[in-house]
Design a protein that fits this description.
- The protein starts with 20 loop residues before the first helix and ends with a helix.
- With about 450 residues, the chain is mostly helical.
- The strands form 3 sheets. It has a two-stranded antiparallel ribbon. Strands 3-4 form a two-stranded parallel ribbon. Strands 5-6 form a two-stranded antiparallel sheet.
- The longest helix has about 35 residues.
- It is built from 18 helices and 6 strands.
- The protein has 3 domains: about 90 residues, Fumarase/aspartase (N-terminal domain) (Fumarase C, Chain B, domain 1, Orthogonal Bundle); about 250 residues, Fumarase C, Chain A, domain 2, CATH 1.20.200.10; about 60 residues, Ribonucleotide Reductase Protein R1, domain 1.
- The chain is elongated.
- Pathway: Amino-acid biosynthesis; L-arginine biosynthesis; L-arginine from L-ornithine and carbamoyl phosphate: step 3/3.
Length: about 450
């Protein structure tokens, strides 16, 4: 199985000399794709069984190869490293298999190509990786949900344009970050389903010339379907693009969680206090408590987006079939998955160890934030919303000119703004009253938030 130059290459017979060192350096991918080895071993074991069904191996030879691959896996797991001539993971596994079983290893490449082999390995790795990512997203959701359950009765300002807008339940704000993560899990599941299509048996581009049972391979390797076109199968990396998009949206949502918490943890807001285990200090300023995990999360969306753009930019210019440009697909995929699997536990821990400064949050709710409630009060008394809006606007301006909160204005000011105001209007300036008006599905009212928490729990089952 060795090539003409004495190395263990899977190609080379038609060349008069070996490749230039510069080509070897750029062409060698094992520094990236070595992590595919468990899947390459499993794939090769399934392929040995398929070759037995196709008559290439006897049952005894297939068993010998499968056992040899178990020993190869044990060697790699124990720390065996590639040598200079192992240009990729497939060559590495094949070389070790030759050392373990000798001659029968030389027939394992029958009917398959590294083109369909790497496509299959990468799909298997992706399915496994997305399963792990899903677990980590769920753990972050659980951390958010636990905090939301504890803060159902607490009130805080909600913001539009980063300006105080209306009062909401703290739980309602927390759950506003739960549901984007639920959508992320749906996207991850969709990307996993896209990956679960078996390309093995497609050969280099035209399909295998041997009657390998692809249904047997599908079931043995945990795929849900079989590719329908060999040309498409070896060049298809849509599943990686879909995975990277799902991870990009996940990174975006982690970034938004982080941005809220970074703001709310600042001295200017003072709404939350970070746990010691998820904070860092300053090398110069002893008083500092820095939310480094959250700041790294805020940067994650850009990193995932960069990986997505790099892959799609590569794919858009490729002709059909396999092209060596696709060697770059795993760099983007591995980087995005590595980044997210490292980041998600730190974000979950940061959320789980937050302490909410409930008094500070409640004090940040001003009477002006109930301006819409005052307008609604008038609408319930048959005043048009346009006129109600104008009347409340005049009250807000008066409070600003006097330098007082809206709740400090005398009742005479309300009557002057609109004759439909009655004494009970002052009750509308309580934030609890504001929340009670919004007990609609998806709103911040107490009953609605309780239902939302129940729905969130159900979504995690």
């Amino acid at each position: 199985m060795s090539s003409h130059d004495g190395s263990h290459k899977l190609w080379g017979g038609r060349f008069a000399g070996g490749p230039a060192p510069e080509l070897e350096a750029v062409n060698r991918s094992i520094g990236t794709d070595l992590r595919l080895w468990p899947f390459d071993v499993k794939l090769s074991q399934a392929w040995a069984s398929a070759l037995a069904t196709a008559g290439v191996y006897s049952a005894e030879e297939a068993a010998l190869v499968r056992d040899g691959l178990d020993r190869v896996a044990a060697r790699i797991a124990a720390g065996e490293q590639p040598i200079a001539s192992d240009e990729d993971v497939h060559t590495f596994v094949d070389r070790l298999l030759h050392l373990e079983v000798g001659g029968p290893a030389g027939r394992l490449q029958t009917g398959r190509s590294r083109n369909d082999q790497v496509a299959t390995d990468t799909r298997m790795w992706t399915m496994d990786a997305l399963d792990r990512v899903d677990v980590l997203i769920r753990q972050l959701q659980e951390a958010i949900l636990l905090q939301a359950e504890a803060q159902q009765d607490a009130i805080m300002p909600a913001y539009t344009h980063l300006q105080r807008a209306q009062p909401v339940s703290v739980a309602h704000w927390l759950l506003s970050h739960f549901w984007p993560l639920a959508r992320d899990r749906q996207r991850v599941a969709s990307a996993r389903a896209a990956a679960a299509v078996l390309p093995l048996g497609s050969g280099a581009i035209a399909g295998s010339a041997f009657p390998v049972p692809r249904e047997q391979l599908r079931d043995a390797l945990g795929f849900a379907a079989i590719s329908r076109n060999s040309i498409d199968a070896v060049g298809d990396r849509d599943f990686i693009a879909e995975s990277l998009f799902a991870l990009t949206m996940l990174g975006t949502h982690c970034s938004r969680i982080a941005e809220d918490l970074i703001l709310f943890g600042s001295s200017e807001f003072g709404f939350v206090r970070y746990g010691d285990a998820y904070s860092t200090g300053s090398s110069m300023m002893p008083q500092k408590r820095n939310p480094d995990a959250l700041e790294l999360a805020r940067g994650s969306g850009a990193r995932m987006l960069g990986d997505l753009v790099a892959l799609v930019g590569t794919l858009k210019g490729l002709p059909s079939g396999y092209n060596k440009d696709l060697q770059e697909d795993k760099r983007a995929l591995f980087d995005a998955v590595d980044g997210m699997t490292l980041l998600l536990p730190a974000v979950a821990g940061s959320v789980a160890t937050l302490r909410f400064e409930l008094t500070r949050m409640r004090e940040a709710v001003s009477g002006a934030m109930m301006a819409t409630d005052l307008a609604d009060y008038l609408v319930r008394r048959s005043v048009s919303f346009r006129d109600a809006h104008g009347a409340v606007g005049r009250l807000v301006r008066e409070a600003e000119e006097r330098g007082v909160d809206l709740s400090s204005l005398p009742f005479s000011s309300f009557v002057a703004a609109h004759s439909a105001f009655e004494q009970d209007v002052l009750a509308e300036l309580a934030p609890e009253r504001s929340l009670s008006h919004r007990d609609i599905a998806g709103g911040t009212g107490p009953s609605s938030v309780r239902r939302q928490i129940a729905d969130a729990k159900q979504s995690l089952l």
